[in-house]
Write a structure and sequence with these properties.
The protein has 484 residues and is an alpha/beta fold. The protein is built from 18 helices and 15 strands. The protein has two domains: 260 residues, 3-Layer(aba) Sandwich (Rossmann fold); 214 residues, no CATH class.
Length: 484
């Protein structure tokens, strides 16, 4: 099941979680730590090479994933050179728990730090308080932050919590998220070394650019992320293997750690099919033989139609690691290309080249729909209704360079491609997939520009991002889409 679902599906995803402690049956149980015991933990972790923070924002349909993450991490456990700290919030009352993860023993620290038993994980103050507490009490040479949530929305926001007064929407904006990191990293003096995003379609240039002053490396996917029900555990983020490797080699530097997430990831094809929502979300794989045959028949029927707009979408998963110190140079080259395209906005050759590139570029986020009725769409995920506003940055510029005969345009494209190649340190994609590591915003039509994925009105706009403020890309999009 794909990570991000709309609110209507939260009603059918019922996962039963204990309220204040975790029960794993025969697996490790939670130990509560009082304030006196906590002193020993602080002393033992003062010289760590790494502290890895897991922010498990799961008061939503993936509450069960938070449970599995805690269980999986407890199989590894912290060491004198590695602190594993997790904040987990599920879909029950009073189930927000701060953990120090010892081997076979996830230790509940709520009492030790007077941490509330219920928090809104979509509130920037929660994220800020978590990071500051961890950095103060579990200092290390290197820090990593792992974000888990559903409803990943690219540059449009992060961290969905249904306890939010607005029913979990709007999401935390990336300017707000970035400001949290700015505050907790002392205005860039103590940057996070690595940030890992598990939500869908967060691997965007705009996100990387926004976070770059306060983080050194980012790991994220341009595309949707799968859940285990979709294709099995081997096609989800392999956090356990990566943390095991780090525990066995805590001298690993931040770049190596970021790359290891990608090295352990298996990209795959995931064709969508008719009745997906019913079969996976509602029945959770336990459906009848008749339903399977009906789904297979409908899928083949639609995909045999001559008009590809009526074919069902197909997802090819990706994961990449990005050197954020290169974002300023890459952003400058994209800004220069924007200026050149605006200068030639009335040139027929340039307009045709842009049109050809946009028509053929690799698109992401098609598990979402442009229309309101996601329930209908998830049972009949047709290309004509798919969200199609995120595109691969390198593929777009490559196609533009190939299509244009204007030397100024080609030169600007080559500068972007060169800067891009310096930015991506690892990329996992299918052999036939034109996914190179970072997407960029380029809606297909003016009507889709600043269109929010989840509600009628977006609470902050594309123009509010730092990249938009520092470049003319948004002006180019408005000019091109408004005159097409």
């Amino acid at each position: 099941m794909i990570k991000n679902k709309t609110l209507c599906f939260l009603l059918v995803a019922s996962f039963f979680i204990s309220s204040t402690t975790i029960s794993f049956g025969s697996n490790p149980t939670t130990t509560k730590i009082d304030k006196d015991t906590q002193t020993n933990l602080e002393i033992s972790s003062i010289d760590a090479n790494w502290t890895v923070m897991f922010y498990l924002c799961c008061e939503n349909h993936i509450s069960y994933e938070a449970e599995r993450k805690i269980q999986g991490l407890s199989e590894i456990g912290s060491s004198s050179d590695l602190n594993i700290i997790a904040l987990k919030d599920g879909n029950q009352d009073n189930d927000s728990i701060l953990y120090y993860i010892e081997k076979n023993n996830p230790m509940n620290l709520n009492q030790a730090y007077d941490w509330p038993d219920e928090v809104d994980m979509g509130d920037p103050n929660t994220l800020s308080s978590f990071i500051e507490l961890v950095k103060e009490n579990y200092p290390a040479k290197n820090y990593a932050l792992y974000i888990l949530s559903d409803m990943g929305s690219g540059w449009q926001g992060i961290c969905h919590d249904t306890r939010n007064p607005n029913n979990g929407l709007p999401l935390m904006s990336f300017p707000t998220f970035s400001n949290v990191l700015k505050t907790t990293t002392n205005d860039e003096d103590d940057k996070l070394d690595v940030i890992i995003f598990n939500p869908c379609v967060v691997g965007m240039f705009e996100v990387a650019y926004e976070l770059s002053p306060n983080v050194d490396y980012m790991v994220a996917s341009e595309e949707h992320m799968l859940e285990e029900l979709d294709k099995g555990p081997e096609y989800v983020t392999q956090y356990k293997q990566t943390i095991w490797n780090l525990k066995n080699n805590t001298d690993m530097n931040p770049e190596e750690f970021a790359i290891s997430f990608v090295d352990n990831y298996n990209s795959c094809d995931f064709p969508m099919w008719a009745l997906y929502s019913y079969m996976i979300l509602m029945k959770k794989g336990d459906y009848s033989h008749f339903v399977a045959k009906l789904s297979n028949f409908l899928t083949k029927l639609f995909n045999s139609l001559p008009n590809s707009e009526f074919h069902f979408i197909e997802i090819k998963t990706t994961l990449s690691a990005i050197n954020l110190s290169k974002m300023k140079e890459l952003g400058g080259s994209i800004g220069n290309l924007s200026s050149v395209l605006l200068l030639n906005q009335d040139d027929e050759d340039t307009l045709n080249a842009v049109s050809n590139a946009r028509k053929n570029v690799r698109e992401y986020g098609k598990f979402y729909t442009k229309d309101k009725n996601l329930l209908y769409y998830l049972n009949f995920p047709l290309e004509k209704n798919a969200f199609d506003s995120f595109v691969d940055l390198y593929d777009l510029v490559y196609l533009l360079n190939d299509s244009s005969s204007r030397q100024t345009v080609k030169h600007a494209c080559r500068k972007v491609m060169s800067a891009f190649e310096e930015s991506i340190i690892a990329n996992s994609a299918m052999p036939d997939d034109s996914s190179y590591g970072l997407s960029i915003y380029f809606p297909k039509s003016y009507e889709l520009y600043n269109k929010y994925l989840w509600e009628d009105e977006i609470t902050y706009k594309y123009e509010d991002l730092n990249f938009s403020k520092n470049s003319l890309w948004d002006e180019f999009l408005n000019s091109y889409l408004g005159t097409k």
